[in-house]
TrEMBL record:
Keywords: Membrane, Transmembrane, Transmembrane helix
Primary location group: membrane
GO molecular function, one term: transmembrane transporter activity
Location relative to the cell: Membrane
Listed name of the protein: BZ3500_MvSof-1268-A1-R1_Chr2-2g05060 protein
Topology of this chain in the membrane: Multi-pass membrane protein
Family according to the record: Belongs to the major facilitator superfamily. Monocarboxylate porter (TC 2.A.1.13) family.
Domain of life from the UniProt record: Eukaryota
Entries under Gene3D superfamilies matching the protein: MFS general substrate transporter like domains (1.20.1250.20)
Transmembrane annotation, as ranges: 7-23, 29-52, 64-85, 142-164, 176-195, 207-225, 231-255, 267-290, 296-317
Name of one Pfam family that matches: MFS_1
InterPro entries (alphabetical): MFS, MFS_trans_sf, Proton-linked_MCT
GO-annotated cellular components: membrane
Length: 330
């Protein structure tokens, strides 16, 4: 990443803003898929991982908290943008409303590129081997962690995508339904900072494992979210717990590195699998919604079981990491 960070972030920022403006002009479904699905997806991929990797290079003592604090931005955006879009759409046409949000994204992108800089990693010791990414998969701790993260991610985003639809079919107050995603994201702000502060003291794997397990169990509480009170409780709990996974998975993989020069690769490779899991998880849940449209049983069971299975794999990853490090603080 050294030497290319500014190009990656700058290119991703330009592509993101351009595609968002293009979304405001879309008239056909294929145009939306091209601009929002492919274009914005590629742009966000360019921007997310390098920005997190830079933090992991600059912070060592409070690395988990720094990375968790950084990703609270997406939670805050998850609160602001739904409310902003709903308010704009009540007053303006779709295209104009999207362009207003694009200007906000443009301002944030300018700030990103002015504030973030990559620092060169410390020199390797003499005779150190060149980083070979595929060799990392020969390490049980790395392979198990990547596998566990895959299954967790496959179920993690299902409640986020379908919570409003679920509450609608359950007859929950429309106001609560509208703001349920904002409530979930607001709780996620605390889930991405408090567990990370603890992780700096006890190790990221030691906090990641229980929060992922509780997240998977919490998915089944969705069945009880058939009232306004139940919906708020579920949104708060799941927002906090799922936020912990999003913010801790990066520090967990970074902790497997034996040298700072490995951090970017050790984080980048698992995020390929995490991204693929997130891509296929929600469409699978969508097909399951069709099978149980009124009870929502199938998608909830799918998401919860996928996350709990991933947590069980992460349990063995944690054991392998403890063995490799010779310490319980992992």
């Amino acid at each position: 990443m050294q030497g290319y960070f500014q190009y990656i972030m700058g290119g991703g920022s330009i592509l993101l803003v351009f595609c968002l403006f293009m979304v405001s002009l879309c008239k056909e479904f294929w145009q939306t898929i091209l601009a929002q699905g492919f274009g914005m997806g590629i742009a966000m991929g360019f921007m997310f991982l390098p920005s997190i990797s830079v933090l992991s290079q600059n912070w060592k003592r409070r690395r988990a908290f720094a990375m968790g604090f950084a990703v609270t931005g997406s939670s805050i955006g998850g609160v602001i943008f739904p409310i902003m879009i709903n308010s704009l759409l009540a007053k303006k046409a779709f295209g104009e409303a999207i362009r207003d949000t694009a200007y906000l994204v443009l301002g944030c992108s300018v700030a990103i590129n002015l504030l973030m800089r990559a620092s060169p990693p410390p020199p390797k010791p003499p005779g150190a081997a060149k980083v070979e990414p595929l060799k990392f998969f020969r390490e049980p701790r790395f392979t198990l962690a990547a596998t566990g993260a895959f299954f967790v991610a496959m179920g993690l985003f299902v409640p986020l995508f379908y919570i409003q639809y679920f509450l609608t079919i359950k007859g929950v107050d429309p106001t609560i339904t509208t703001y349920s995603l904002a409530i979930l994201n607001a709780a996620s702000v605390f889930g991405r900072t408090i567990p990370n502060a603890i992780a700096d003291r006890v190790g990221p794997f030691n906090v990641l494992l229980p929060t992922v397990t509780l997240s998977g169990a919490c998915v089944f509480i969705m069945f009880a979210a058939s009232s306004s009170a139940g919906a708020i409780v579920f949104a708060l709990l799941y927002g906090f717990l799922s936020g912990a996974y999003v913010s801790l998975v990066g520090p967990a993989f970074a902790s497997t590195a034996t040298h700072p020069s490995e951090i970017g690769v050790r984080m980048g490779l698992p995020f390929v699998f995490i991204g693929a899991a997130a891509l296929i998880g929600s469409p699978i849940a969508g097909q399951l919604v069709i099978r149980t449209p009124t009870t929502f049983t199938a998608p909830v069971v799918f998401a919860g079981c996928s996350m709990l299975f991933g947590a069980s794999v992460l349990f063995f990853a944690r054991r392998a990491q403890a063995k490799a490090k010779g310490s319980r603080r992992i």
